[in-house]
């Protein structure tokens, strides 16, 4: 459709094919014409020369006859000499004429070829500019500048190409706009949904907690029931929080407020939050923090969230009485924090996708473990938002290690130098 | 212990907050929207010790009510309860309106009680 449109629009403008055909025809006619005129003129001059020479010989023979017969010998001798001179003159003339003709034809050919060369270089030049523009515009488009358009004009072929390019760019821009709008609607929806879900959840969780405050008055069965409600409410809240974080991250609106932060208090906060869960499963949780660590440039709440995510995984996926260790050490201008466990480990093909959404341990495990499958994806986004990196390694049967590095805070570095 | 005015448009959340706060020994008054909050503060003989306001309420939001109260010279400390997870979404408001802190829904009551203690002792 685009092509038909372009053709209709540019039918009357000069086409490269037409110009080439006309150019060739003109050059061919010019060159042929020059050659024909040159040869004709040469033959004509040659004929004249031969006629004149023949006539001259005739006159000389007649003069010599008169001389032999002894009639007016003086005049006859003069005539013979005159005719001989005349033939020399004729020879000189024909040589000059032939040279002139050759020069004329040569000049004509050179002029024709020069004209043709000029014509074709003009054609090439008229194509080069729009083609260069197109190449440059394609580059800009590929880099994501969807506003890019080229000027349409000149030869119909390049004009059609330019118009097709512009249509393509406009279409890309339209689709990108639609996609952005859909993304915005989705983000908006997730934000609103998470907001609206939070109020009823606050009530459910709040009243269940209220019941638990009176646990001595409940039967065992009732208490277990309330615990189930609370567990599931917490899970739902976590899921909503995670979905909200991911939606924000996708929209580029997952904001962090990094400031110089003590690594030790961050780790202690996280382990304090998690200690009860570890103890509940008879697991041990150690810390090993290198002394004299620099502060890190981090949003404390967000990095605590990453640590809690990693510790929650270790807690939930490891068998009872497993050990988990949080280690922090300096690595050049960065601080590395590692969470290692001696749990069941992660098979290689799962480890590859471990930071993707909704990737979870194998089916048997996920029945038991109440994760959302979003924690590691969010942790990765958060660490990367800080300008850091996170990685995982694991040996099946021996345990897993998740480690991330964050930049040290500049202010502390300066303080140390002073 | 403290006299607390709670504003939220959800009756169940008001009931929850009233119950938990009264169990902690606080004296609680409730309001269902921003206008009721403003009226309750002006009606009281002495302003409450603390305002616990939902950020989003119909008719007049907690933030709008607070703006009016601050303009009227009421300096009662305020905690904002919000369903948005990022605390202090609006840091300009926070400084202007002297908001003492934010509480996210679902409410972590231990944390809430700690904040109330800090603000009213």
Distance between the termini of chain B: 9 Å
Strand content of chain B: 15-25%
Strand order of the largest sheet of chain A: 2-4-5-7-6
CATH topology of the largest domain in chain A: Heat Shock Protein 90
Order of helices and strands of chain B: EHEHEHEHEH
Write down the Rg of chain B. Answer: 13 Å
Low-confidence stretches of chain A: 1-6, 8-12, 412-418
Helix content of chain A: 55-70%
> CATH top level of the largest domain in chain A?
Alpha Beta
Query: Element order, helices and strands of chain A?
Result: HHHHHEHEEHEEHHHEEH
Strand order of the largest sheet of chain B: 2-1-3-4-5
Relative helix content of chain B? 40-55%
The chain-level structural class of chain A is alpha+beta
Task: Tell me the structural class of chain B.
Answer: alpha/beta
Helices of chain A, by number, come to 11
Characterization of this structure:
The complex is a heterodimer of chains A (418) and B (121). Chain A has helices spanning 2-10, 16-69, 73-142, 156-213, 220-250, 263-280, 300-317, 348-351, 363-368, 375-385, 410-417; strands spanning 259-261, 284-289, 296-298, 323-331, 334-341, 389-395, 399-407. By secondary structure, chain A is an alpha+beta fold. Chain A has 3 domains: 2-143; 180-250; 259-417, Heat Shock Protein 90 (2-Layer Sandwich). Chain B is α/β, with parallel strands linked by helices and 121 residues long. Chain B has one domain (3-120): Rossmann fold (3-Layer(aba) Sandwich). Chain B contains 5 helices and 5 strands. Chain B has helices at residues 11-23, 34-43, 62-71, 91-96, 109-120; strands spanning 3-7, 27-31, 50-54, 78-82, 99-104. Chain B has a 5-stranded parallel β-sheet, with helices on both faces. In chain B, strand 3 (50-54), helix 3 (62-71) and strand 4 form a beta-alpha-beta unit. In chain B, helix 2 (34-43) packs parallel to helix 3 (62-71). At the A-B interface, helix 4 and helix 5 of A face helix 1 of B.
């Amino acid at each position: 459709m685009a092509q038909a449109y372009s053709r209709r629009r540019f039918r009357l403008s000069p086409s490269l094919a037409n110009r080439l055909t006309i150019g060739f025809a003109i050059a061919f006619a010019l060159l042929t014409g020059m050659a024909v005129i040159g040869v004709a003129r040469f033959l004509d001059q040659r004929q004249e020369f031969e006629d004149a020479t023949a006539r001259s010989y005739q006159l000389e023979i007649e003069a010599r006859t008169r001389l032999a017969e002894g009639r007016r010998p003086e005049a006859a001798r003069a005539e013979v000499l005159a005719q001989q001179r005349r033939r020399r003159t004729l020879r000189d003339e024909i040589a000059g004429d032939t040279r002139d003709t050759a020069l004329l034809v040569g000049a004509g050919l050179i002029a024709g070829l020069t004209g043709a060369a000029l014509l074709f270089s003009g054609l090439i030049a008229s194509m080069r500019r729009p083609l260069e523009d197109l190449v440059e515009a394609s580059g800009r488009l590929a880099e994501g500048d969807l506003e890019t358009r080229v000027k349409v004009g000149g030869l119909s072929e390049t004009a059609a190409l330019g118009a097709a390019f512009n249509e393509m760019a406009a279409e890309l821009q339209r689709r990108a706009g639609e996609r952005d709008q859909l993304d915005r609607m989705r983000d908006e929806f997730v934000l609103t949904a998470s907001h609206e879900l939070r109020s009823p959840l606050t009530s459910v969780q709040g009243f269940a907690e209220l019941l638990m405050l009176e646990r001595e008055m409940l039967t065992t069965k009732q208490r277990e029931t309330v615990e189930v409600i609370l567990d599931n409410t917490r899970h739902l809240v976590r899921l909503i929080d995670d979905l909200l974080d991911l939606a924000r991250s996708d929209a580029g609106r997952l904001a962090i407020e990094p400031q110089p932060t003590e690594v030790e208090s961050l780790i202690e906060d996280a382990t304090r939050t998690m200690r009860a869960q570890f103890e509940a499963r008879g697991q041990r949780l150690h810390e090993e923090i290198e002394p004299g660590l620099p502060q890190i440039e981090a949003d404390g709440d967000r990095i605590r969230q990453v640590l809690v995510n990693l510790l929650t995984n270790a807690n939930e996926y490891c068998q009872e009485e497993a050990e988990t260790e949080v280690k922090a050490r300096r690595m050049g201008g960065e601080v590395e924090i590692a969470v290692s466990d001696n749990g069941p480990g992660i098979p290689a093909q799962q480890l590859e996708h471990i930071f993707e959404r909704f990737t979870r341990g194998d089916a048997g495990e996920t029945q038991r473990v109440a994760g959302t499958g979003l924690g590691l994806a969010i942790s990765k986004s958060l660490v990367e938002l800080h300008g850091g990196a996170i990685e995982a390694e694991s040996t099946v049967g021996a345990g897993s290690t998740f480690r991330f590095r964050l930049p040290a805070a500049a202010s502390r570095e300066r303080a140390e130098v002073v | 212990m403290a006299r607390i005015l709670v504003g939220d448009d959800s009756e169940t959340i008001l009931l929850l907050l009233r119950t938990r706060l009264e169990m902690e020994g606080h004296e609680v008054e409730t309001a269902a929207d921003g206008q009721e909050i403003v009226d309750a503060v002006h009606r009281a003989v002495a302003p409450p010790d603390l305002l616990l306001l939902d950020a989003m309420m119909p008719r007049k939001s907690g933030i709008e009510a607070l703006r009016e109260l601050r303009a009227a010279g009421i300096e009662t400390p305020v905690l904002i309860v919000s369903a948005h997870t990022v605390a202090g979404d609006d840091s300009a408001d926070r400084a202007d309106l002297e908001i003492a802190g934010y509480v996210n829904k679902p409410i972590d009551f231990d944390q809430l009680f700690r904040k109330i203690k800090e603000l009213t002792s």
